[in-house]
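Good morning C.,

I know you're traveling, so I'll keep this short. The sequence:
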Amino acid sequence: MADEQESSQQRRHFDTALLEAFDRVRDELRDEIQRSEGRVMTAVEAVQERIERSEVTHAGIHAAEGESRQIAHARFEEFMHKAEIAAAKRDGALGIIRFSVDLLGRNWRGIVAAGGAAWFLLGGVHIQVVAS
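The tokens, ready to paste straight into the viewer:
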């Protein structure tokens, strides 16, 4: 009976020591996981900040490219317009007529719309509403 009690006490002591060891390992793992989560979250936040900065930079690059493209197009159109006028002057009356016809041909929709609006506003168009 004494052997059984001693064996039972040893088993309890062993079980207690084993549970304490498991608790220590669990606590160490929990701490290590928390440290790892902290490192991962710090890295994720750093990546998010870099992505946000690159998005702002990327958008700025696109805006600058668009602005410089518009400026280049405007300069080119101005150059072409001046070249057309210079060619028309150089060709004399025929060049001026050709320039005018070309200008009318490129802008005919706007001219027709403006003429239609003027005709409507000046009373050339009458709208009747008939009740049935």
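Safe travels,
E.
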